[in-house]
Every structure is written in C-alpha cells, then in structure tokens.
Amino acid sequence: MFTGIVTAIGNIANAAPRDQGLRLSIDAGMLDLSDVALGDSIAVNGVCLTVIALHEDRFEVDVSQETINCTVGLDGPNEVNLEKSLRLSDRLGGHLMSGHVDGVGEVTRFEPAGESFLLVIRAPRELAKYIARKGSITVNGVSLTVNRVEGADFEINLIPHTLTVTNLKNFKPGSRVNLEVDLVARYIERLQHYGA
C-alpha cells in the first residue's frame, strides 16, 4: 500500500528488453534506499514494482508486458515519481492506494490559475463513475483532490509545492498519465452488485 505522497523524483536510466517485458534501472534521486531490501515495493509513477536489485543510488525492477500495456511512462528514459511502500507506523498524508493503475488518462488543460495551476484530465469513460467531486484520485502516483467533474473530465488544483516535488510540472495538453481511482469507490460498487 502507498499514500500518494511522493518522496522523490527519480529517472529511468535504462529500460532493457526481457522475455515478456522490461528490466528498468532507476536512479533514485533523493529517495533514501538505506532501508530498502530486495523484494520491497516502490511505486514508480504510481505503479507498484518489486525491487530485484539494489545499488548505492539506484534500484532495478522487472516490468511485465501486461503492466507496460496498461500504463505510461515506464518504457524508456523518463522522469518518474517515487514512493516507498507504507509501513503501519507511517502517517497517512494522502489516501490509501494500491499501486495498481486502473487506466491511462489524457491532460486536456494545464495552465496557471493565480499562484496555482489548473489541471484537467480526461479519464477513460469506464473509470469516470469512480471519480467524485472532493474525492481522491492518484495521478502518476500523486494523491490529489478532485475539484470538479463533468462527464469523464475532472479538474484538479495543483499548488506550487506539488509541482516542485513531483514530475507533474512537466505536463502539457496531450500528456498521458497513470490513474488509480479511490479504493473505496471500487469496493462500494462491488458490494452494490454482489452484496448480501
């Protein structure tokens, strides 16, 4: 589990083809790897990946072809948001997220709005029902609050701090982004359809 509070910005330094996927070597940036062990999970742009090799300032993960097919930003050199998995003693500053991307959205607007930035994303139609005004959503691994929803489009206000500590500052209209909807919304739907 993760919180969507990004700890560092890293870089995919290498993406080597492997049977049915890729092996990524990721420069960890300011992410402290001193307490990371082989087998630990790190969210990379919102995707939960397992550490298979550790080095002083980087780590390696394998990414399946299935994950590559349903996400963006993992198939080559790229700046990525990083977060280590949640410990039970950690603060929950964002919201609970699994690191299982639900779909890929597209940025339709990204522009200054006073001291902040307005971000509008078009979600895949099948995910729109899970996105609610004042609800939580994860965009490239960042826990954010939805301010407005219209159809499959939703608006977010990004404060300067969020832009400073994440890769969201690189967005522009047409950028594709990883989305994970709120876990609670998915379970409520399941209970409504299959509950007792």
Describe the protein in words.
With 196 residues, this protein is mostly beta strands. It has 2 domains: 8-84, Elongation Factor Tu (Ef-tu), domain 3 (Beta Barrel); 103-194, Elongation Factor Tu (Ef-tu), domain 3 (Beta Barrel). Helices cover 12% and strands 43% of the residues. The protein has helices spanning 65-69, 160-165, 183-194, and strands at 8-18, 21-27, 41-44, 47-54, 58-64, 78-84, 103-113, 116-122, 136-139, 142-145, 148-150, 153-158, 176-181. A 7-stranded antiparallel sheet has the order 10-9-13-7-8-12-11. The longest helix has 12 residues, at 183-194. It is globular and about 45 Å long. The protein starts with 7 loop residues before the first strand and ends with a helix.
List keywords for this structure.
Elongation Factor Tu (Ef-tu), domain 3, seven-stranded antiparallel β-sheet, 196 residues, mainly beta, six-stranded antiparallel β-barrel, 3 helices
Rounded mean pLDDT is 93
Helix fraction bin: 10-25%
Q: What distance separates the N and C termini?
A: 28 Å
Query: How do the strands line up in the largest sheet?
Result: 10-9-13-7-8-12-11
Question: Counting H and I runs of at least 4 residues, what is the number of helices?
Answer: 3
Radius of gyration: 17 Å
Number of domains: 2
Strand-residue fraction? 35-45%
- The total beta strand count reads 13
CATH topology grouping of the largest domain: Elongation Factor Tu (Ef-tu), domain 3
Largest sheet: 7 strands, antiparallel
Low-pLDDT stretches:
none
Structural class, by secondary structure, is mainly beta
CATH class of the largest domain: Mainly Beta
